[in-house]
């Protein structure tokens, strides 16, 4: 019995030596949460947060850090659907117009839907996926637009907001392009 004790203890200690040190506790994507107020400086309508998509090893040795903008509970984003019924956050053209009857028809026939939103705005790799080029932007212009429905105690408003990104920081800013009461024509 005694000759098996030492090999058993060595076998027991081996997995402990293979575990990573302090790096195990470090987040490869340190992305702080920021509350965003594009419509009213006294109220946060959106928030910037980070998502980490890593490989399956623990700790994750490679993957992607993603910056995303999510809606607060009183805000909904307009989703559009294609012919195959695939939904995505509607990213309107640079200049456009949304008529109240077009919105109502789209909602009634299932081409549009209001829902909570989580829009990925920039991403970069870490570990083996890191390319050293900074944050990847969603398109060449580095901008995305969303149509929001904001419900407060005072009113229900529709707004078009534009998210700007850059390679150095990823998310750069969010600004309201136009805000109107629900039922009015939304032009941007």
- Between the first and last Cα atoms, what is the distance in angstroms? 82 Å
- Count of the separate structural domains: 1
Mean pLDDT: 86
| CA-atom Rg in angstroms | 23 Å
Q: What count of helical segments does DSSP give?
A: 2
Proportion of beta-strand residues: 35-45%
What is the general shape? elongated
Tell me what the structure shows.
The chain is mainly β. It has one domain (23-187). It is 14% helix and 44% strand. The chain contains 2 helices and 12 strands. The protein has helices at 2-18, 100-108, and strands spanning 34-36, 46-54, 62-71, 75-81, 87-89, 97-98, 112-115, 118-127, 143-151, 156-166, 170-181, 186-187. The strands form 3 sheets. Strands 4, 5, 7, 9, 10 and 11 form a 6-stranded antiparallel sheet that branches. Strands 1-2-3-8 form a 4-stranded antiparallel sheet, with no helix packed on it. A two-stranded antiparallel ribbon has the order 6-12. The longest helix has 17 residues, at 2-18. It starts with a helix and ends with a strand.
Sum this structure up briefly:
This protein is mainly β. It has helices spanning 2-18, 100-108, and strands at residues 34-36, 46-54, 62-71, 75-81, 87-89, 97-98, 112-115, 118-127, 143-151, 156-166, 170-181, 186-187. It has one domain (23-187).
Features:
mainly beta, single chain, 2 helices, 12 strands, elongated, four-stranded antiparallel β-sheet, 188 residues
């Amino acid at each position: 019995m005694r000759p098996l004790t030492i090999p058993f203890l060595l076998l027991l200690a081996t997995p402990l030596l293979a575990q990573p040190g302090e790096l195990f506790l470090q987040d490869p994507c340190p992305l702080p949460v920021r509350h965003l107020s594009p419509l009213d400086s006294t109220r946060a309508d959106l928030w910037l947060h980070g998502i980490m998509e890593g490989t399956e090893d623990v700790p994750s040795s490679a993957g992607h850090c993603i910056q995303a903008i999510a809606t607060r509970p009183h805000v909904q984003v307009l989703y559009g659907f294609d012919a195959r019924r695939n939904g995505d956050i509607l990213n309107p053209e640079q200049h456009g117009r949304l008529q109240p009857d077009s919105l109502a028809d789209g909602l009634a026939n299932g081409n549009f839907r209001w829902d909570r939103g989580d829009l990925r705005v920039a991403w970069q790799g870490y570990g083996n996926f890191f390319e050293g080029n900074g944050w990847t932007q969603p398109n060449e212009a580095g901008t995305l637009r969303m149509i929001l429905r904001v419900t407060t105690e005072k009113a229900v408003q529709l707004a078009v907001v534009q998210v700007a990104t850059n390679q150095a920081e990823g998310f750069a800013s969010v600004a309201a392009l136009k805000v109107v009461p629900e039922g009015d024509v939304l032009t941007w």
